[in-house]
Model the fold of this input.
Amino acid sequence: MSVLVMKFGGTSVANLDRIKRAAKRVGLEVAKGHDVIVIVSAMSGKTNELVGWVNETSPMYDAREYDAVVSSGENVTAGLMALTLQEMDIPARSWQGWQVPLKTNSAHSSARIEEIPTDNLNAKFGEGMRVAVVAGFQGISPEGRITTLGRGGSDTTAVAFAAAFGAVRCDIYTDVDGVYTTDPRVSDKARKLDRIAFEEMLELASLGAKVLQTRSVELAMRYKVRLRVLSSFEEPSDEAGTLVCDEEEIMESNVVSGVAYSRDEAKMTLLSVADRPGIAAAIFGPLSDAGVNVDMIVQNISEDGRTDMTFSCPTDQVRHATKAMEDAKEAGDINFARLDTDTNVAKVSVVGIGMRSHAGVAAKMFKALRDENVNIKVITTSEIKVSVLIDRKYMELAVQALHDAFELEKAGS
Ligand code: ADP
Ligand code: ASP
Ligand code: MG
Done:
């Protein structure tokens, strides 16, 4: 029997009517003969509310309790989805992460999946169950505590199940009908892509395009999962959505295939640190130990043996980064005159595998930003992307200007 994985995001299960609508889609796939594993998110807005409650109760919260709270939204939708399917006479059962069990490491709030045993679900499929509804986003640590996989983690749950069960496909149902050249909410010229290469999707996701969680794309690439992104609001069709696939399966592509942005960036600068061997290790070691995801790094020219070190990290990690730096200063490991934090920045990036063989992308990007009078604060590049940090108030303008400059509204440019 073939297994199909269908994942429904928050907007697709936002209320009982939407759960019914999603369940009907599951019914169509069951009728085609698939055994279906449905992964559900929490109702839209629910996880944000739960995170808010945790922060209000305990700003420097214990991550184990954070996970206990924020994982709960998915439990509700999993049970409701199973009940809805049962009402449609489809044999269905719900599973929370620990019941599967979806085993993760102990990195609470951003745990990584280690193993998904298939025997429990397969035994039920063997007894006639047609749909296993699994609560996304959550797992269990070796210590037996509930973990979560990071925001947007239900995508990763879905791909991991598809890999573990050798699913024919992993369909990610969301509120847009596929992956676009940029966020369709920011540019009305955004164009839907029929296909996108794993590597490009990986960059777009890690640079902020939240349509898929980065880790889900990594897993799909590693385990060769056929991954499709489509809308749960449009009429079902085999051609619908965007297929995330190997580069070889894509006939033509633009030099730049997409523009991504992230508004949750902060720029932190340590002013006047000693310019000596080991200083970078002394700064970034403690940041890493504090779980801060440092992204861009710039070290200024030094004067009189002192330099400024700038780095960017997600805004919600500023508190931890500040504490790590102050602790390191107090311990005498580093010395700096001041720590400046700018939380009014955003990162905008252009991505494309065509950049490997085409020069001039960065220059074109900088010119497009100059023409809009957008000042660039920090730049980073890799083989297939160029990212800049800019004032947040220009973020949408910059995304639109870059979309225009690279003519992304047209295919094959
Ligand atoms: P879900 O709740 O279904 O997981 P998300 O909100 O996590 O949905 O992701 C879908 C959203 O991702 C879209 O509503 C869209 O605004 C955003 N998005 C960002 N970049 C892109 C892109 N390049 N293509 C499609 N959607 C994108
Ligand atoms: N509910 C979780 C979140 O909002 C996981 C997900 O939806 O993928 O981040
Ligand atoms: Mg999501």
